[in-house]
Specification:
Elements: E1 9-11, H1 22-31, E2 35-41, E3 46-50, E4 55-62, E5 64-69, E6 72-76, E7 81-84, E8 90-95, E9 100-107
């Protein structure tokens, strides 16, 4: 589920990608030109609507992170990544009780 009109792209980890690990997922994002940081967000974490001045890629290693872009909602689960062009307004929240371990990619 992507929104090409906005340039939003959703991708999932596949069996062909091999076992999901932090190193492998980070490598995919870095090869696409992103600088990547690892974050952990606890149950109840909410990020109100905001935007960034650079392209972003959010990926999940553990838990579920819901990202809303306009009328669309993307539930990122382990191995999922969502690409957002600079200036895309979005909000995010942790879904459920599991801490989300997220890879946050920024393309400068």
């Amino acid at each position: 589920m992507s929104d090409p009109e906005r340039g939003v792209r959703f991708e999932s980890w596949t069996e062909e990608d091999g076992p999901l690990t932090e190193k492998r997922l980070m490598g995919v994002i870095e090869r696409e030109g992103y600088e990547v940081c690892v974050y952990a967000y606890r149950e109840g974490t909410v990020f109100p609507e905001h935007k960034h001045g650079q392209d972003k890629c959010d990926a999940v290693l553990e838990g579920t992170l819901r990202i809303r872009v306009g009328d669309s909602a993307y539930d990122l689960k382990p191995g999922d990544r969502l690409y957002l062009p600079a200036g895309t307004r979005h909000a995010a929240e942790v879904v459920g009780r599991t801490t989300v371990v997220s890879l946050d990619g920024t393309k400068w």
